[in-house]
């Protein structure tokens, strides 16, 4: 069995086009940037929406050339993917990867088609598809979400077990065939082997499930804490605001990485401190939804009791299962439906604890501004209670900045998880998370690039997608 090249048989006719288009597109972008410094006022005109468009001359020509070359490059990349799905390893390493990602491509196509078709009915999410930057960011984020879903639930994408070692594959390069591959076993390490003869491609794919599971959930919990405390601090002000702001500033005064070192060290973990912190922090979703429902249906007792039961009972059972762990400081609850790895729980608690004060300050500032609006005064005149005003008048009108910050904060959390894995904090040493994989590959980076680059590129692409998605949401929210 021969070694795979990057593009296989596709390389004979697509690679020359790629090698021509990439430098031409780069030159076109640079030329466009340089020409923009000398563009005269007569070369542009204003659109009704306030944007500017080139009207002629070399400036208009440069813009068109850049657009054409960019479109040609996109078409070429799509050809690599589509032909790779059809040909598999016949199209080289990229073909093998594209074929393994077939469920992801299908899910992305369906998601984009449905979203664009019904975008006028989908509110802010639908408006996202009017922004090119937003769509690119959304595509990058959803790519990794679908990778994590199809890997975690069905294990359709990874070619090998993330922890299994194959003799003779230590530090082997991308596309090297396995020696003595058995019947039904995937015959290649598509992105090569690491220093322990494990498949780099499978570790990157499996690592996405850890990042996608922890980062959004930890950010959501941090928002529950920040919103529940930030709204009354900004609305009431006074001593409550002073006390909560002091505590938030006290936490923010600690260097983040030092705080993580303190929370994840074995001695601190053995004391049960992270678990006790989880008892407090994980209760905030219960408090938030309980107050949300109570404030909305306070005057309708039957509906109020029904919704409280529907929402709070499952949340309470999940909460008790989350904080309860056999053999730990808290292990009294009999209905334990799931167990979370102790290392992951510590990291989760640490991320929530570090992010909550920043969210608190954002929500507090928004509440202080919005509470002065006329519709809040109207609600007060109607005799609405403070929590109703905070949750049903102030919070919905603060959703734009909060949604944007939520996307950005998931990116920060992803970087934070990568940093923790890189330093070997919290997560198990054999974990395939991207930070740990980068750290393992770093040790031989001067000799072998392939173990460290794929997880680094994966981390970069996810964070870039989240930032572009936040930019797209910001653009569309400002137009409301």
TrEMBL record:
The record ties this protein, via InterPro entries, to:
BP-dependent_transpt_permease, MetI-like, MetI-like_sf
Return the protein name: Peptide ABC transporter permease
The listed locations are: Cell membrane
Which key words are in the record? Cell membrane, Membrane, Transmembrane, Transmembrane helix, Transport
Q: Which residues cross the membrane?
A: 16-35, 68-91, 97-116, 128-154, 210-231, 243-264, 276-293, 305-322, 342-363, 406-427, 447-470
Q: Which PANTHER family match?
A: OLIGOPEPTIDE TRANSPORT SYSTEM PERMEASE PROTEIN APPC, PEPTIDE ABC TRANSPORTER PERMEASE PROTEIN
Query: GO terms for CC?
Result: plasma membrane
Q: Which GO terms describe its biological process?
A: transmembrane transport
Look up and give the membrane topology term. Answer: Multi-pass membrane protein
Q: Which PROSITE patterns match?
A: ABC_TM1
State the organism of origin: Pseudoponticoccus marisrubri
In terms of CDD domains, this protein maps to: TM_PBP2 (cd06261)
Q: Which family does it belong to?
A: Belongs to the binding-protein-dependent transport system permease family.
Q: Does the keyword Cell inner membrane apply?
A: no
Q: Where in the numbering of this chain does the ABC transmembrane type-1 domain appear?
A: 208-470
Q: Does the keyword Cell membrane apply?
A: yes
């Amino acid at each position: 069995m021969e070694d795979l090249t990057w593009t296989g048989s596709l390389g004979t006719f697509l690679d020359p086009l790629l090698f021509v288009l990439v430098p031409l597109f780069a030159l076109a972008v640079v030329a466009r940037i340089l020409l923009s410094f000398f563009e005269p006022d007569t070369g542009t005109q204003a659109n009704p929406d306030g944007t500017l468009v080139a009207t002629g001359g070399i400036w208009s020509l440069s813009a068109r050339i850049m657009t054409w070359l960019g479109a040609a490059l996109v078409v070429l990349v799509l050809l690599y993917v589509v032909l790779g799905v059809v040909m598999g390893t016949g199209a080289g390493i990229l073909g093998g990867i594209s074929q393994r990602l077939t469920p992801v491509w299908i899910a992305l196509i369906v998601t984009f088609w449905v979203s664009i078709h019904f975008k006028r009915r989908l509110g802010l999410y639908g408006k996202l598809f009017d922004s090119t930057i937003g769509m690119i960011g959304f595509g990058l984020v959803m790519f990794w979400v679908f990778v994590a879903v199809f890997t975690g639930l069905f294990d359709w994408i990874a070619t090998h077990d993330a922890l299994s070692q194959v003799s003779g594959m230590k530090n082997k390069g991308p596309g090297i065939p396995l020696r003595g591959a058995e019947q039904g076993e995937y015959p290649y390490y598509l992105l090569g082997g690491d220093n322990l003869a494990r498949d780099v491609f499978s570790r990157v794919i499996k690592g996405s499930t850890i990042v996608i599971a922890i980062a959004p959930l930890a950010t959501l919990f941090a928002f529950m804490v920040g919103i529940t405390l930030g709204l009354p601090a900004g609305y009431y002000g006074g001593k409550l605001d002073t006390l909560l702001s002091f505590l938030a500033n006290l936490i923010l005064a600690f260097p983040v990485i030092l705080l993580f070192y303190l929370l994840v060290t074995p001695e601190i973990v053995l004391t049960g401190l992270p678990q006790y912190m989880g008892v407090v922090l994980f209760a905030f979703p219960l408090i938030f939804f309980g107050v949300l429902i109570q404030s909305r249906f306070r005057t309708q007792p039957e509906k109020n009791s029904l919704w409280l039961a529907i929402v709070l009972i499952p949340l309470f059972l999940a909460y008790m299962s989350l904080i309860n762990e056999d053999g730990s400081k808290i292990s009294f609850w009999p209905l334990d439906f799931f167990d979370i790895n102790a290392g992951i729980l510590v990291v989760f608690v640490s991320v929530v604890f570090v992010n909550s004060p920043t969210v608190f300050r954002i929500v507090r500032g928004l509440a202080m501004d919005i509470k002065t609006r006329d519709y809040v005064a109207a609600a007060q005149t109607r005799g609405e209670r403070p929590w109703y005003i905070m949750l049903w008048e102030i919070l919905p009108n603060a959703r734009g900045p909060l949604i944007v910050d939520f996307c950005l904060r998931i990116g920060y959390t992803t970087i934070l998880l990568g940093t923790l894995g890189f330093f070997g904090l919290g997560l198990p040493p054999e974990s395939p998370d991207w930070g740990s994989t980068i750290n393992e590959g770093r040790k031989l980076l001067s000799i072998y690039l392939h173990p460290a680059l794929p997880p680094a590129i994966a981390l970069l692409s996810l964070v870039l997608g989240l930032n572009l998605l936040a930019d797209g949401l910001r653009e569309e929210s400002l137009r409301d």
